[in-house]
Design brief:
There is one protein chain. This protein is of the alpha+beta class. About 50% of the residues lie in helices and about 15% in strands. The strands form 3 sheets. It has a 6-stranded mixed sheet, sandwiched between helices. A 5-stranded antiparallel sheet has the order 1-10-4-8-7. Helix 1 (about 5-25) packs antiparallel against helix 11 and helix 5 runs antiparallel to helix 11. It is rod-shaped. The model is unreliable at about 1-30 and about 570-585 (pLDDT under 50).
Length: about 600
Amino acid sequence: MNGVGRIKIWALVLAMWTIVWPFASAHAQTGEAVATCIRPIERGQTAAAMFGQPQGFDCRDDQSSYGAGDFWVLSQPLTALPGDPRERLTIAFASTWQDATTLHILYADGQVRRIAFTSATTSPYLLLGPMIAVPLPRMAARPVRILWEAHGAANMRGVVRGARLQHHAEALEVEGQLGLLYGTIMGMVVALALYNIVLWPALRQPLQPVYCLLLFFITGYALCSSGLIGQWLPWLDNNERHRWNAIMLGGVALTIVIFARYFFEREVFRGWLDLMAVVVFALIAVPNLAFALLAPLWIRTLDALVVAGFAILLAFLIAVLVQAWRRRSNFLWAFAIGWGTPIILAMFRVLNAAHLIAWRPWIDQSTVLSMGAEALCASLGVAYRIYLLSRERDLARADERVARRLADTDPLTGLFNRRAFLDQAIGRSGPQTLILADIDHFKRINDALGHDGGDEVLRIFARSLANTLGPDMLVARIGGEEFALLADAARAPDAELLLARLRAASYPMGAKVTASLGLCTGPMASEEDWRRVYREADQALFAAKDGGRDRACWGVPLSCDGYPPPPLPNNRPRPRQERGEKGVCANGGS
């Protein structure tokens, strides 16, 4: 890929992110962020008591440091949102693995309202993102604090993350924007998959089914991680959605290993990188499979192993890029541009999962969106790779045709050689006329003109023969100064006219060149037929030479299945041959 092509693709990526980024950060741009504090639930505690004891909550440590279990999560005092105070409010927060959640809402007049749902009944509150958005009951007073009561929280990266207080209308507006964006991404991904499925039978590139599998997992991950599948299937347990989210993301990771293996040239993976690909595949597959089958058992340990697998995958992809650069891969830039953004954003996810950076809504959002951008860029990369492979295949075929032509061609005259002539002659249907032409006294010509002059005579003689060719006729130099011409019997050139043409050609230094012709008509369906016809034509050629040269002699015609043997021309006998059969000769010089 040249520099202009890379600039165009980078411009495309930047343009896409100019459109995508406002949507990706939409949740972060509406409403007010709500800070939260945590404490484990103990026997006998009540929500009312928790509202009265805010000093007992931990507001400094990372929530995930408490491990899995049951927790109270208390918001800091809520600020009044600008706008009409009568507008309905919504508290939105990231969806996490929890068995049951109850929201206790404290209002300024002291009243407390509660909204409870389980993992199985989360669907009505699930928005794209995926965010859980719970509309707050309308009261005369405004809400001042919210207390989450979470049971069975895996707490892998926090119990309540990214909480925001929003106007309900704003949340629905963001939902509509993200729905349009996710629909566009998934429609594009599905279209790319169908396009490659349709092309695969024609192109037969092993990369294509792998790419389609990758697109399948990207689509599944987009459905699960965005929460869209939870909206489409309201009966789906939210924890099961998280499980399928992990399965699809693991599928993406595993397929990337295979995709990279097929995307680049074989030389890139030769040696240690090939072994590393197998190891990385296993280190991703085992913990992801264990998470899918065993969660919530040992869920935090399994999650840590899954995160470690993704960190190893990132190191592997970087190693692939370095090795591709070292091996001067033609596909380096296509892969780097297509997967650069997802790799960088995956690094942020790994850092967040390792608790090295704080969670932000755009981390989850941008991963899905970057995969959509990757699908488009990777499709360009796949198309570019297929183009290069097709060009290489076309060049190889052209080289093969050239090599075959060189192998089939007499280098001096440009006519077929004996082998190529026989390949195309044997197997023809119907009676065929074989003409053997031999230059008379060629040794004298060679001695008089020199070898260069003799070669030029051969070239001019060959050109004169070739100029007589009609449809389906073959002509070849079968050795020395001997040539062969084959044509359907009904369209064979007239021997006398052929002799005249050969005699009239302009040869070097005004040399007079004549030829003797031996002709025979017969079948050419098999190699045995060829030998019989050639033997007759060769005897006729000797008869022409014995009869004084510069003339044509016909051998005895041979019968052909379905065709009677043609009569001898002019019914004039030729000199008797060894087999005692009679043909005819015509004196071309008389």
